[in-house]
Amino acid sequence: MTENLMTAFELLGVGWGGIFVVMIVIYLVSLALSKIFSPGKDE
After folding, report:
1. What is the pTM of this model?
2. Distance (Å, rounded) from C-alpha 19 to C-alpha 15?
3. Which contiguous run of DSSP H or E holds residue 25?
4. What are the b/e assignments for 5-22, b being 16+ CB within 10 Å?
5. Which long-range contacts (CB under 8 A, 24 or more apart) does 17-26 make?
6. How far apart are CA 3 and CA 43, in angstroms?
7. Could you read off the pLDDT of 2-36 as tens digits, one per residue?
8. What does the alpha-carbon distance between residue 23 and residue 18 come to, in Å, rounded to a whole number?
């Protein structure tokens, strides 16, 4: 019973960790895209 609970907590930690990693990657990509394609004084 305790072994199953520890496995469940490990999976929970991996899941939340993955969510935060994906959110950080999306944030960094959006920052890079806004720097590259920023509306500037080109025209």
Report:
1. 0.68
2. 6
3. helix 2-36
4. eeeeeeeeeeeeeeeeee
5. none
6. 64
7. 899 999 999 999 999 999 999 999 999 999 999 99
8. 9
